[in-house]
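Quick log. Single chain, no ligands specified.
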Amino acid sequence: MANTQKAEAIAGLSLKAFLVTTIGILLFGIYVGVLIYGENSLTVLNHLKEKKQALKQEEKTLKVENQRLQKEYFELKQLEPKELEK
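-> predicted structure:
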């Protein structure tokens, strides 16, 4: 008991307060770890932002290609002989 009181006097905290503080710090560390590396983490968010940007770029490329192909299609369609109506 004397050792406990001596340790409390040195640390300035009771054993109970020390344990509660330690457990709180550990839980906070786990929480931060989950935020950074978990399923809904910041790394996943950054990856999804990069993927979104790549998809937007692909969308622009495909729109340009679609316009080119539509132009080619209508040019070819104009070259076809028109059907005679009866």
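DSSP finds three helices and no strands in the chain.
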